[in-house]
Design a protein that fits this description.
Blueprint lengths: L10 E6 L1 E4 L7 E4 L1 H11 L4 E7 L9 H6 L3 E6 L5 E7 L2 E8 L17 E4 L8 H14 L6 H4 L1 E4 L5 E3 L5 E3 L7 H8 L3 E5 L20 E5 L5 E5 L2 E5 L12 H16 L5 H14 L11 H11 L2
Parallel strand pairs: 1-4, 1-8, 2-6, 4-5, 8-9, 9-12, 12-13
Antiparallel strand pairs: 2-3, 6-7, 10-11, 13-14, 14-15
Helix pairs in contact: 1-6, 3-5, 6-7, 7-8
Length: 311
């Protein structure tokens, strides 16, 4: 296998940008979406990132995208007739969402110069990443990994949240139990070596062991906000504690966490260890102390937070 150039993309992130309605922005919305948070996080933590980002017309020139480009993200916009638009409502410490627009599908069209990437992070917000992306990412990433077989060799990460959403006729976004997700969405999760979700994304009381069959080759990481979270790998559990923070805006914290775990996997080859989970918890802790994408931390900020937290 030929050596990968020093400026080659290490991590490819795929998903649509969302527009999250808010009263404190003159546009009436703020740019969000897992792909934007994950791309910016991984770039600020030291990876060379390529982001294939679905955008509707208003989102295509959002000023927040300059943050990604300033961090070195190779940003490729894919214009969508319809992009995801959400209204986020915090009630009792939990988020409920109303949807104002669904997302068109993102075509699985791979930039040729990204084919050396060893990591892929598929992070839909509303099912816009379909099963063709799972096959494309697996084929390309396994080639980059030297022919390693299986999802763990390909280093494919998936944000499960966007695959466990339904868009009700009443305007509310509802959870879909993993067993009731469409076969097309199930294919994406089954291809992953890392799957990230919130405890709010799975049915209350569902035993963790029942999640593994949906992602048989994956380490599943569930976040629980200030209660920390857990990584599930077969019969093994690794619990981690949250890092204290002065919360200003919790939006995107789970995406920052997932991207930090993915970054550690790409950089070290080790997936969801105690150290990388602690590192990711510190990154998420930093992110909630800012507003929107402006809160995504640099590696030095995460290191300083870990030092203060004693780990």
């Amino acid at each position: 296998m030929e050596a990968i150039p020093g400026d080659a993309i290490q991590l490819v992130v795929v998903g649509a940008a969302s527009r999250d309605l808010t009263d404190d922005d003159p546009r009436g919305w703020r740019l969000g979406g897992a792909a934007t948070y994950c791309s910016l996080t991984a770039a600020l933590l030291g990876l060379r990132v390529g982001c294939l980002l679905g955008v509707d017309s208003p989102a295509s020139d959002a000023h927040e995208l300059a943050l990604l480009e300033a961090a070195g993200v190779d940003l490729r916009r894919v214009r969508l007739d319809h992009g995801p638009v959400f209204e986020n409502l915090e009630t009792g410490g939990h988020r409920r969402q109303r949807w104002h627009s669904k997302s068109d599908a993102l075509p699985a069209d791979l930039p040729g110069e990204w084919r050396g990437a060893s990591g892929w992070l598929l992070v839909p917000v509303g099912g816009e990443v379909r099963e063709d992306w799972a096959a494309a990412a697996a084929a390309v990433a396994e080639t980059a990994a030297g022919g390693a077989s299986g999802a763990s060799g390909a280093r494919i990460g998936v944000g499960w949240q966007g695959l466990l959403r339904s868009f009700g006729d009443d305007g509310w976004v509802a959870r879909v139990p993993p067993g009731e997700a469409s076969p097309q969405r199930a294919v994406v999760v089954a291809a992953a070596g890392l799957v990230g979700a919130s405890v709010d994304d799975v049915p209350p009381g569902m035993p963790l062991a029942e999640l593994q069959p949906f992602a048989p080759a994956a380490t599943i990481v569930l976040t629980a906000g200030e209660n920390g979270g857990v990584a599930v790998r077969g019969n093994d559990l690794i619990r981690y504690r949250a890092v204290p923070a002065a919360v200003v805006d919790p939006t995107g914290a789970g995406d920052v966490f997932l991207a930090a775990v993915m970054t550690s996997w790409v950089q070290t080859g080790e997936l969801a260890t105690e150290a990388s989970l602690r590192f990711a918890a510190a990154a998420a802790s930093c992110s909630v102390e800012g507003v929107g994408l402006a809160g995504v931390p640099t590696r030095s900020q995460v290191g300083a937070r870990l030092s203060r937290a004693g780990g």
